[in-house]
Amino acid sequence: MKRVHLGVSLFFSVVLALATSGCAGAESGGARAPSSGAVPAAASPPPPPPSPDVAAGPGGGALALAMNDPAKAKSVSDSPHSAAMLIYTANLSLAVFQVESGLEAVERVAREVGGYLSSRQDNAITIRVPRDRFDDTIARIEKLGDVTHRDIKAQDVTDEFVDLQARLKNAYSIRDRLNDLLAKAAVKEALEIEKELGRVTEDIERMEGKLKLFRDQIAFSTVTVTFAPVAVEQVQDATILAPFPWMRGLGLQSLLNVHQ
Amino acid sequence: MKKLSLSSLLVLAAALALTGCGRPFDVKTAPGLVELDDQEPEYSYRAIAPERVVMAVRVVDTKGRGDLEFWTRATTLRMHELDGYALLGTADVKSRDGTPGHELRFGHDEAHKPYLYVLRVFVANKRLFLVETGGPQAQMERYKSTLDWMQATLKLD
Question: Cystine design at A185: which of A5, A107, A115, A189 (Cβ 3.0–4.6 Å)?
Answer without folding.
Answer: A189
